[in-house]
Amino acid sequence: MSTPHAPQPERRYSYLGPRGTFTEAALAQVPEAVGQEWHSVNNVGEALADVAAGRSDAAMIAIENSIEGGVSVAQDALATIPGLRVVGEYLVPVSFVLVARRGTTLDQVRRINAHPVAYAQCHRWLDAAIPAHGHVPASSNVAAAAELFDSALADAAIAPPGVVGLYDVDVLAEGIADSDTAVTRFVLVAPTSRPVPPRTGADKTSIVAELSVDRAGALLGLLEQFSTRGVNMSLLESRPIGDALGRYRFVIDLDGHVTDERVADALLGVRRFSPGVTFLGSYPRADRVPTVVEERYTDAVFVEARDWLRELLSGAPVD
To answer: Where is this site: Essential for prephenate dehydratase activity (predicted)?
Structure first.
């Protein structure tokens, strides 16, 4: 007699909600998340805390956008909340509309509800079209529109175009982002107990590094760990540590995987400069573009160099 298969346990994913956000669109790109429980939260810290505490299996968060650069609140959270690992990267094209309660006209708008990141991506249009406006921060792009009906603090909201299918609003303006090719980069964050995804040849590695001393050339010494090994940095941003003026940590994305010889060797070098370096993860690039490596930085060259040194130390003949 056959034994019935036990039901697979449901996995839980936290994301910045409510429904309709760009973060939800990023989570929809994760095959393993399809058909699982999606838990809407109010901010990045809450999403990552869910993962750290074991309440969620993973969280999707925005980490960078093509107009304003890194999302500082996400970078700071990843740098300070222990037990987290980035396991995936996803890209979402973003565009925005200005919406308002029915009957509101553009000339009546004085205060605008918007997520701070979205507001920053639309400031040129806003300054030109509504120069005397005020900004009311919202927890997410969709929440900005929803809050129009809960409060009179704002006259209009910056929101994704799809919000018109969720709320009874008028669209006062379309395409208000400062760039019509804007893209936001999201990362899927899991516990460190989850294995590092295998190398694909089109990977990124993310770390956070702090300088142990503040002296001339200290940052150059850190960065040389990558340049001398042929490791390209696709992101380098500084964030204040917060314990004193002039103290910064560096959020760094590298082209390559931690199991690539050149990347592993560079991380060993970084460890000397930054004893508190945090490995955030190695994961497939969202665009799946393979990393091009010069011949002198391939795995085989690093392996041959180690073999050469081993022979020197063993006293064996060296060609």
So the answer is: 184
The predicted model scores a pTM of 0.88
- 77 and 108 share one domain: no
SS3 category, 112: strand
Q: What is the mean pLDDT of residues 85-106?
A: 96
Identify the DSSP state of 152. Answer: S
**Residues 105 and 59 both lie in one domain:** no
Give me the phi and psi of 52, to 5 degrees please. -60, -35
pLDDT tens track for 269-318: 999 888 789 999 999 999 999 999 999 999 999 999 999 999 999 986 66
Residues 52, 187, single domain; the answer is yes
How far apart CA 38 and CA 156 sit, in angstroms, is 28
Cβ-contact 92, 26 below 8 angstroms: yes
- Give the residue among 10, 26, 19 at the shortest CA–CA distance from 92: 26
Residue 5 lies in a domain: no
The structure tokens 């590092």 sit at 196
The rounded distance, in Å, linking the Cα atoms of 107 and 153 is 17
The DSSP output letter for 120 is H
In a domain, 61, yes or no: yes
CATH number at residue 113: 3.40.190.10
Give how far the C-alpha of residue 57 lies from the chain's centroid of Cα atoms, to the nearest Å: 17
Six-digit token string for 183: 């893209």
Tokens of 271: 């460890």
Are 141 and 258 members of one domain? no
